[in-house]
Each structure stands twice: as C-alpha cells, then as structure tokens.
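Example record

One chain of 55 residues, shown exactly as stored in the release files.
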Amino acid sequence: MLMNILMFVFTIFVAWGLRNVAKQKNKFAMAFTGVALAVCIFADVLIVATGFAVP
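Predicted structure tokens for this chain:
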C-alpha cells in the first residue's frame, strides 16, 4: 500500500520535472522525461485498475 502511494507521488514529481524541462526547451531531456512520465502513468493506471490490491 505504501509503495502504491509513493508511486503516485513519484508520478507527480516526474510531471513537475517535465514542466520545468519544457521551459528550458531541452529536447533530449523532454523526451526522456516524457517516456518516464508515460511509464509512471501506465503503472498508476494498473494500480488503480487492480484496486490497490496487495499480492
């Protein structure tokens, strides 16, 4: 349960980082952070879809 909540917090930090990188217009950093954000959002969707189930 704690790891699920930490994953949501990490996703927020990655999104915040993408916003900051977008201001600097660094294309490589934007692509790298965008992929990381996509993976985090996918993991968050899986967490919500399973109903926060603990294995």
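Notes: The helical segments are 2-24, 27-49.
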